[in-house]
Amino acid sequence: MSRSTATYVYCLVRSAAPPSLEGAPDGLPGAAPPRLLPLDGLWLVVADAPLPEYGGDAIESRLSDLSWVSDRALAHESVVEHFAAAVPVLPMKLFTLFHGDERAVAHLQEQREEIGKIFDRIAGRVEWGVRILFREDEARRRAAAAAAGEGERPTSGTTSGTSFLLRKKAEKESVRDLTTGLRAEVDRAYEELASRAVEARRRQPEPGEAGARLLLDAAFLVPAGEDEAFDAAVQRLAERLAERSCEVTLTGPWPPYNFLGALA
């Protein structure tokens, strides 16, 4: 008989006693409420997910639907964060599914030693995300304002059209020089923040929005007791880079999704 549901795994929890399910979010739309499976001193937080909606082909066909994926990512994260607020948690990636409880337990049991090492490494630590966005359109406006402030006027024999082109060239060169200098400064900023973290990961920046360029997309694993100091360091960085048309964004704290190695 074919199964009508798969076992969906939200996260692994390290706890001597079963973690409480009281107040846990509903989780993925259409799935059953979260429940627990024991695993050699750990607990799997799982749910029964209907295969018509969460089978491999069904998920693959919906991955381009950003609204559908986002709704399920938020639901997944809400369950992980619920347990992370009380006990050490190792989050699983979105759409981690198995053909039944036995398969889920057996698969993770094979990685039990590695899972234990990861728990030891992330215990008492949280993830913070830092993004640095260069506002190229703002930099151009600043360059134009600076040129205008210098009182540039067409000189004898120079047409207003030529003067306009010269100003535009100067603006372009100013932004180019600023971008070149920012690369080194962003590298220094990353190293500075990494020195305050236990581990750091720098991801390949995605294309920025129109008129902007993402220069840094990084994650930092920070001891939970040092959150305020890390936050303050990011704010100082934001103030320094604001003068160079950069916007610094800090997100978190999150469960350490980016520090799970191959298990993620």
- Give the distance, in angstroms, between the N- and C-terminal Cα atoms: 32 Å
Task: Give the structural class.
Answer: alpha+beta
CATH architecture descriptor text of the largest domain: 2-Layer Sandwich
Kindly provide the radius of gyration, computed on alpha-carbon positions and rounded to a whole number of angstroms: 25 Å
Strand content: 15-25%
Contiguous runs where pLDDT drops below 50 for at least 5 residues:
none
> N-to-C SSE series?
EEEHHHEEHHEHHEEHE
Number of helices: 8
Overall domain count? 2
From the 3D structure, determine the CATH topology of the largest domain. Alpha-Beta Plaits
Q: What is the overall shape?
A: globular
**Average pLDDT over all residues:** 85
Question: Tell me about the biggest sheet?
Answer: 5 strands, antiparallel
